[in-house]
Design a protein that fits this description.
This protein has about 150 residues and is α/β, with parallel strands linked by helices. About 20% of the residues lie in helices and about 30% in strands. It is built from 3 helices and 7 strands. Strands 1, 2, 3, 4, 5, 6 and 7 form a 7-stranded mixed sheet that branches. The two termini are about 25 Å apart.
């Protein structure tokens, strides 16, 4: 009934409400960094296995300063990218709120912060809106707009 989309709300007859902006950064597992080393610059990302979000055709890349290095994995699911990074598959570009705080991922290139990627709450144009959907939508709008 509801979806959160980053960057662009998508095509079609969906109803989209901008609920905030995201900050993103690069994250990798300690095991990956021990095995492959830690990049000191953005240019060094090209020598690593990149786990990048898929960017829909015609949209601006969610990457630092232009085109990112060719990824080892590219997909539209940030949760999958985070899981792959935790397993040591590479360095993932993730919204900072998705990075676990348990030490399974560490921030790489902390001086690089990608911000202002719009976050949209998307729903189908259903009338009347079921009460459970309206309640969740209202809660998400309130909490996402007030989140840091």
């Amino acid at each position: 009934d509801l979806a959160l989309r980053v960057g662009h709300p998508g095509a079609g007859s969906f109803i989209a409400r901008k609920v905030g902006s995201l900050e993103a950064g690069f994250f990798a597992s300690p095991a990956y960094l021990e095995r492959r080393g830690t990049p000191a610059t953005q240019a060094e990302l090209g020598t690593h296995d990149g786990l990048w979000p898929e960017v829909p055709k015609g949209q601006r890349s969610f990457s630092p300063g232009g085109a990112p290095p060719k990824p080892a994995v590219q997909c539209a699911d940030f949760s999958l990218l985070a899981e792959l990074a935790k397993l040591g598959a590479g360095i993932a570009l993730l919204p900072t709120f998705l990075a676990p705080r348990d030490g399974s991922l560490v921030r790489v290139l902390p001086q690089v912060s990608l911000s202002n990627a719009p976050l949209y709450l998307v729903s189908r144009p259903v009338k009347p809106v079921p009460p459970r959907v309206r309640a969740l939508s209202d809660w998400l709008v309130q909490h996402l707009r007030s989140a840091p």
